[in-house]
What we know:
Elements: H1 2-12, H2 14-27, H3 30-43, H4 47-63, H5 68-89, E1 111-115, H6 120-125, E2 131-136, H7 144-152, E3 156-157, H8 163-166, E4 173-176, E5 181-184, H9 188-192, E6 215-220, H10 226-231, E7 237-241, H11 243-249, H12 255-269, E8 274-277, H13 304-310, H14 312-325, E9 331-335, H15 341-355, E10 363-369, H16 372-376, H17 378-384, E11 387-390, H18 392-399, H19 418-434, E12 438-440, H20 451-456, E13 461-464, H21 469-477
Parallel strand pairs: 1-2, 2-3, 6-7, 6-13, 7-8, 8-9, 9-10, 10-11, 11-12
Antiparallel strand pairs: 4-5
Helix pairs in contact: 1-2, 2-5, 3-4, 4-5, 12-14, 13-14, 17-19
Bound molecules: phosphoenolpyruvate (PEP) and magnesium ion.
Amino acid sequence: xxxxxxxxxxxxxxxxxxxxxxxxxxxxxxxxxxxxxxxxxxxxxxxxxxxxxxxxxxxxxxxxxxxxxxxxxxxxxxxxxxxxxxxxxxxxxxxxxxxxxxxxxxxxxxxxxxxxxxxxxxxxxxxxxxxxxxxxxxxxxxxxxxxxxxxxxxxxxxxxxxxxxxxxxxxxxxxxxxxxxxxxxxxxxxxxxxxxxxxxxxxxxxxxxxxxxxxxxxxxxxxxxxxxxxxxxxxxxxxxxxxxxxxxxxxxxxxxxxxxxxxxxxxxxxxxxxxxxxxxxxxxxxxxxxxxxxxxxxxxxxxxxxxxxxxxxxxxxxxxxxxxxxxxxxxxxxxxxxxxxxxxxxxxxxxxxxxxxxxxxxxxxxxxxxxxxxxxxxxxxxxxxxxxxxxxxxxxxxxxxxxxxxxxxxxxxxxxxxxxxxxxxxxxxxxxxxxxxxxxxxxxxxxxxxxxxxxxxxxxxxxxxxxxxxxxxxxxxxxxx
Length: 481
Ligand code: PEP
Ligand code: MG
């Protein structure tokens, strides 16, 4: 555990390391140790079974707890369980290199991680050096875990029911992230059909020069990714999902920590446009450190802009950090999950008051179009706002009432439906009428089957993961001018 704590501190900072400090404390807990010993002595079970049995009891208890924060601790407790079991089952070299989630993952290269579910923060924390693919039982194409995997260039297939029951640790698996195919224990003949099989590493980032008919910006989740965006000649940052900085730190960041990150992004972009989104927590991005009330329907609950209005203590340090950072280069502030014009105006006024004392700030204020009601009000919103950005991932979810994370309805998560395109056309027309810039930062922006349609609607700026910038540019370059 000490080795893990120092590695995590070095790689990700003390915030992350605290998770593992807490795990170490659990392992040293006298009461827990007493319970193991009692099971061994009274039930005559071996040490491994005693660990399993004791943790099972805790899992059942935690599962019954109403409090979401407490229930989410099951994952931490299970991690302690697996670490203990691993140490008991195998005598291992104590100096063996440990990784973040499960040291088995570093055994060798070319590991495919199979899990029931990967949360956004777990995906970010995975030992991606040694991970060449993800398979999950839950989740959909537009889930944040899938978006992050795509950003890392790692093939991922989600919504594979019962896959954990079919696979054992160490099973050989062929995984095709593009088609969603998984072949378990492929025969030698099958393997011969895949001559490129050894080229499993994520492809290097290759820059494709900007094209005349489309501006392509980069989506990032961490400030350090601005380097990749720059390397592929992104024409700016079109979406910085700032909440991921906190999700990966396991806590809210202070104003100064946020300032450092935003200023870094603005400096590296050297005058290119930088769109930074206000913290977009809630819904499919729960954060235990926010201590939010338990909701029956979090995707329709306290999330995005609504949460920021309710919890201004989240908003204030962020907008002050943004205002200070904008001295290094103008910043466009994106308001997430805006429902109507009134909500935008109230929030913008609140922000203006909070930063009134900061000299030299260069902020503009715009709206994410991802809730259908805001899209229907695009004319009025764009008259008032400085810019708009279509968040098609959530727009599809809310327009068709289909959960973007639920593999059971993944077949219905369908951007092809004409109503979506009518709505997008309406927003594009409103942007033209108001003369305000409009971009799209959802996943469809990089997909060759949708990008030409977006451009035909009059959208000529998209923001996509740095790895997909080349694809978007190649698609656009092939279109007749
Ligand atoms: C969207 O909803 O399209 C979007 C870009 O935001 P996120 O995927 O982070 O919800
Ligand atoms: Mg969204």
